[in-house]
């Protein structure tokens, strides 16, 4: 095996594939990066058994300046190989495997020889038929993941909640996550999906890595689901993720359809006030901020206190308030995460009672996106 490639372009693709490689894998060969060279292309593969990423570097793409002299395959220690390539002196790098499983890495005046492994021992990626795939705009899908991943549970006691429930029915893609203290749900209408139906739970960690890769992708992401794997295809990259087993809880019944008190305000301004209040709440044992709403007086304020430090109180600018008086306490970190997901939008907070979960929705397309937070009992 021997090929020469533009080092900067090669590093860009190495970084993507390395997202799937763990230095602590229980399968030793998975700490390596698989390189397969054939037909004027280089295929890079990384995997940690949960996520697998395969990307193809084609000689037809001028940015790679790829020259293949001899086909072949090898598995190299991923992190070490990547660190070497990043520090090489020249714009081009040549990688050659001659005798056995040793790779020679040459660039300018530098030359490394590192030990590799037989590529035939590397686990095969799942065979997934992409003919029945459906497509989502990459930037839109990245937003869906970003807006729902905040509510993914990190407690392994309920593994199913560590994933995002993704379903497709009647042309509507729905993503839901909950850790039992908060919930995030986003809906998107898709075109040209026909009668296609999907109902899977994808690990939150997998989708977080995917969202980081597709944020700047211009082409749509093709999605295909099988019994235990999801495949996402974009550009020259294939991203595989295992699926979580089990039934995701029915979250639709958790979202209230009535409210006693509503407040309309600017999400970013409210976020700034919450962050100021949390400076003190983070110093207290319970980390709680209180919101007081008095629609008749046109008054809304947040307050927080720490027995050791002091207290804070701030009036909140609102566009509209309706309904009954309310005092409600909540975790400011949960509220901050929810508010960040709305960006600069105007939002509506809807409350039933001080002890029931409340919702945040945008003023536009309010049926497409909802964040739900369970309040904190303070007495």
Automatic annotation (TrEMBL):
Matching NCBIfam families: dnan
Family the entry assigns: Belongs to the beta sliding clamp family.
CDD domains to which the protein is assigned, alphabetical: beta_clamp (cd00140)
Matches recorded under SUPFAM superfamilies: DNA clamp
Ranges where the DNA polymerase III beta sliding clamp central domain occurs: 136-250
UniProt-listed Gene3D superfamilies: 3.70.10.10, DNA Polymerase III, subunit A, domain 2
Primary localization: cytoplasm
BP terms from Gene Ontology: DNA strand elongation involved in DNA replication
Sorted UniProt keywords: Cytoplasm, DNA replication, DNA-binding, DNA-directed DNA polymerase, Nucleotidyltransferase, Transferase
DNA polymerase III beta sliding clamp N-terminal domain residues: 1-126
Residues in DNA polymerase III beta sliding clamp C-terminal domain copies: 253-377
Protein name: Beta sliding clamp
Complex and partners: Forms a ring-shaped head-to-tail homodimer around DNA.
GO terms for MF: 3'-5' exonuclease activity; DNA binding; DNA-directed DNA polymerase activity
Subcellular location as annotated: Cytoplasm
The organism of origin for this protein: Limosilactobacillus fermentum
Function: Confers DNA tethering and processivity to DNA polymerases and other proteins. Acts as a clamp, forming a ring around DNA (a reaction catalyzed by the clamp-loading complex) which diffuses in an ATP-independent manner freely and bidirectionally along dsDNA. Initially characterized for its ability to contact the catalytic subunit of DNA polymerase III (Pol III), a complex, multichain enzyme responsible for most of the replicative synthesis in bacteria; Pol III exhibits 3'-5' exonuclease proofreading activity.
Gene Ontology CC: cytoplasm; DNA polymerase III complex
